[in-house]
Amino acid sequence: MDVHVVVITGAGSGLGASLAKKYSDLCCHVCLLGRTQTKLIRTAETSLSHNHSIYEVDVSSKSEVAKVMQLIKEEVGQIDLLINNAGVGIFDLTENSSEESIHQMIDINLKGTIFCTQEVLNDMKKRNQGYIVNIVSLSGKRGKASESVYRASKFGSRGFTESLAIELEHTAIRVFGAYMGNMKTELWEGASSEKTFMEPDDVADVIMESIKPRKYASIEEIIIKNIKEKY
């Protein structure tokens, strides 16, 4: 299936920005979604070579997501590829996690993925085509101290991704989960081992190569590990 319209949440920096650039280089119309318009504009001005659109949205709000997805459909066209990349991490011991931080991680990391996916499914089913890529991270594969709530949100995203794939297994819609280690992004800025973290561009390359259509072959998930880190 040819990909013409790509929607990327959390496109203002990191992996989202890298994916946006690479799909733009392939002449796709890239829709940049995020909470901070200035970051989206920066990505567009510094990285994108072809047509693009910017949409400021809080993915944790179902109503905002519905409005933006409808606007994309009207202004750009049917969405061929949705990349659920938006995420936030606030790390602390379980007993010290604030109610606000718990809501924020569950709302953005898990609910945001679900809300965005819901808004593209009907059209994809009508056309019987489309790609949904969920950027989960290795945090959705195993637990870790001081990241209990963050990882709970990612375990939820993993469960959603795997269940959605089963729901759609008799269609031509493809669902893909990316489970990668730490990258040089704002989430891990200042971490002691940041210099050994993976480059977002490298991770983007692996994801894009993995979801390329192949005759009689389909990759449902991929693990991209940082060789210097323990998870």
- SSE pattern: EHEHEHEHEHEHE
Determine the fraction of residues in helical runs and give it as a percent range: 40-55%
Gyration radius, in Å: 17 Å
Number of helices: 6
Question: What is the fold named in CATH at topology level?
Answer: Rossmann fold
Number of domains: 1
Written description of the protein model:
The protein has 231 residues and is of the alpha/beta class. It has a single domain, classed as Rossmann fold, CATH 3.40.50. The protein has six helices and seven strands. The chain has helices spanning 14-25, 37-47, 62-75, 99-127, 148-167, 200-210, and strands spanning 5-9, 29-34, 52-56, 81-84, 130-135, 173-180, 221-224. A seven-stranded parallel β-sheet has the order 3-2-1-4-5-6-7, with helices on both faces. The longest helix has 29 residues, at 99-127. The protein is globular, with a radius of gyration of 17 Å. The mean pLDDT is 93.
Describe the secondary-structure layout.
Elements: E1 5-9, H1 14-25, E2 29-34, H2 37-47, E3 52-56, H3 62-75, E4 81-84, H4 99-127, E5 130-135, H5 148-167, E6 173-180, H6 200-210, E7 221-224
Parallel strand pairs: 1-2, 1-4, 2-3, 4-5, 5-6, 6-7
